[in-house]
Amino acid sequence: xxxxxxGAPQTSEASDSAPHERxxxxxxxxxxxxxxxxxxxxxxxxxxxREEYARLGPRRxxxxxxxxxxxxxxxxxxxxxxxxxxxxxxxxxxxxxxxSPKLETLEQIARAMDYRLEVKLVDNRKSRAASRGAEAxxxxxxxxxx
Length: 146
Fold this sequence. Notes:
single chain, mainly alpha, 434 Repressor (Amino-terminal Domain), two-stranded antiparallel sheet, 7 helices
C-alpha cells in the first residue's frame, strides 16, 4: 500500500519581476510515515501512552473495519448514509473517530452494506495476561535490537 510522507517544503526564489516573492512546492518530500511515527511514539512513549493506545484498540479496529467494508462495497459516505438512513456527517464523524454512535446506528450502517455487526465480550483477566506476555516479548526484542 503506498504511503505519503511529509517533510519541509522546498522554497525557491521568484523571477526578477517579483524578487521578494518565494514559491513553495511540496516536491521531493521525505520523512517518516504515519505508521513509523506511531511505532516510534509507542516504543519511546510512557506506559500511560501505550495503555491509552491499547485501550482505544477496539474502537480503532471497528472504525477501520467499517471503512474497509464501505470501500470494498465501493460506496461513498453519501451513498452509505442514504442506504443506512443517517446523515453523511454521521458517517464522516464515525470514520474519523469523532462520534460514538449507538449500537443500533452501527447495526443500521452494517446492514446497509450487507454485513452484520457482532459484539464480543472478552475476559480482561485472560487478555491482560496475554498483553503482558506480548509486551515482555516486544521489550526483549527491542532490547536485543539496540
